[in-house]
Design brief:
By secondary structure, this protein is of the alpha+beta class. Helices cover 24% and strands 42% of the residues. The chain has two domains: 72 residues; 115 residues, Alpha-Beta Plaits. The two termini are 16 Å apart.
Length: 238
């Protein structure tokens, strides 16, 4: 875009920064199989009570709207029962075995990373618990966010200056700074976190002496769009 006041340059820019995670989320499943639904549910409930008691002894509280950012929180957020079935090779039918499996999904959120080793030991001490995933997260107000956003703006300014110099002009002032997509570009979010996931197999977490969880650095990504106006440009041959 060009007018009597110079050229308007539209650019996009991105900045990235690795930071330590603010908290970890461990998702698991308590599972019991018994001869009846009542017995299976009773066993699952007893295992959950033992687990939450061990967590409470380490300062854990139930996760709810008022929990805030406590160092250790837990929630049991879903429960299922399922009649076990098997395929009878002689009849070709899928038939019930007479047993019932009950499960309850458990989530543990930890913010005190120094307690991860102890927490791993607590979880490993409960054989009915299968921890199937660990994810690492960064808070929306992490102090690194302003830094990475400022770096993205700096990158946009450098890019605009490169374009202006190629035209024989200089950047005069900023017209717009926006998250990606707000100036008519793509719809990608202006800032995001590249999450790292650690998956723990049941065998490894139940064995004594299994490795402690190590926090994985998270990549903060800020993407912006910007428009700058340059000084007047005179193209060769015009």
């Amino acid at each position: 875009m060009n007018d009597a006041g110079g050229v308007v340059l539209s650019v996009s820019a991105e900045a990235r920064q690795l930071v330590e995670p603010d908290y970890a989320v461990l998702d698991g499943l308590i599972e019991h199989t018994a001869e009846s639904k009542v017995e299976a549910l009773r066993s699952v409930t007893a295992s959950l009570d033992r687990l939450t008691a061990d967590l409470a002894a380490r300062g854990a509280v139930p996760f709810d709207a008022g929990a805030g950012r406590r160092p250790l929180m837990w929630s049991a957020h879903s429960s299922t029962t399922l009649d076990q079935r098997h395929h009878d090779k002689e009849t070709g039918r899928v038939e019930r075995t007479g047993q019932v499996t009950a499960t309850v999904a458990v989530r543990v959120t930890v913010r005190d990373m120094d307690t991860l080793e102890d927490l791993s030991g607590v979880l490993a001490a409960h054989p009915s618990l299968n921890v199937h995933g660990v994810t690492w997260h960064v808070d929306w107000d992490n102090p690194a966010w302003p830094q990475v956003r400022a770096a993205a703006i700096g990158a946009a300014i450098h890019k605009a200056r490169d374009y202006a110099a190629a035209l024989g002009a200089t950047v005069r002032h900023v017209e717009h700074i926006a998250d990606a997509g707000l100036l008519g570009g793509d719809t990608a979010p202006g800032w995001r976190t590249r999450k790292s996931t650690a998956v723990a197999a049941r065998a490894s977490i139940e064995q004594p002496g299994s490795p402690a969880l190590n926090p994985l650095p998270q990549e903060l990504i800020a993407t912006i769009e910007a428009r700058f106006r340059t000084t007047e440009v005179s193209l060769p041959g015009t």
